[in-house]
Here is the input.
Amino acid sequence: MVSILIIEDEKDIVEALEYNLKKEGFKVSQANDGRSGLKIAREKLPDLILLDLMLPQIDGTEVCKILKSESKTATTPIIMLTAKSSEIDKVVGLEIGADDYVTKPFSMRELIARIKAILKRYVKSDQNIKKPYFKFPNLEIDIEKHEVKVDGKQIELTAKEFALLQYLAENKGKAISRSKLLDTVWGIEVAIETRTVDVHVKRLREKLGKKGGKYISTLRGIGYKFVE
Ligand code: CA
Here is the structure.
C-alpha cells in the first residue's frame, strides 16, 4: 500500500485530504507541525509527502530542505501546499528541492492526479536503472549510493540535480530536450517553465566544477547532452 504523509496545520484541509486519499486507496498519516512532521517522515518513511509551507515550529521550506538533505528521505517526493502564488518560485524546488506544488485552494482531483503522476515516475525510474554505477575520467556516479565524485571527491547534490545528472548520464550521447527533462526529472509537463531546467543544470555544473561539468554540453535551442 502506498503511504502518504500530510504535514499541515489547517484541520479542514487535513480532513479533506485524508478522506480523499484514503478513498483512493492510499495509506495516510499526518502531522500538524514541522517538528512532528520531520519525526514521522523519518520513522515511517512514507512514499510521498504533502507539505504545507506555513507551519508552526519549523516551516515547510525548512522541513523540505532537511528531508531532502537526509539520505533516508532524500528521494521521497514532496509536494508543497502553498497559499500564495508569489511563493511558487521559491518553492518549486529551485531553492528547497520540492518535487511539485499546488496553490491553495487546490482541487482535490488535480492534487490526486499529480500525486499519481509523481509516484508513477518514481516507480518507473527505479525500474529503469540499468547501470547503477557510471565511471568516466574525473567523474563517478553511484546511483545506488546516491553519490557523485569528481576526482574522487564527493560532491553534494540536491535530489533534483542528482536526478538530472543521472538521466543525462543514462542517456549518454543523446540530445535531451528541456521538456523531456522536465517530463522525466520533474514529471510535470506544464506547470514549470523550461528555464527551471537551465537553472538546475547551471547549478549542477557549478557544483561539478570544470572537470565534472564538462560532460554536460548545451545544445542551443534544444536542451542538453551528456558527452564523454
Ligand atoms: Ca499552514
Q: What stands out?
A: The first strand starts at residue 3 and ends at 7.
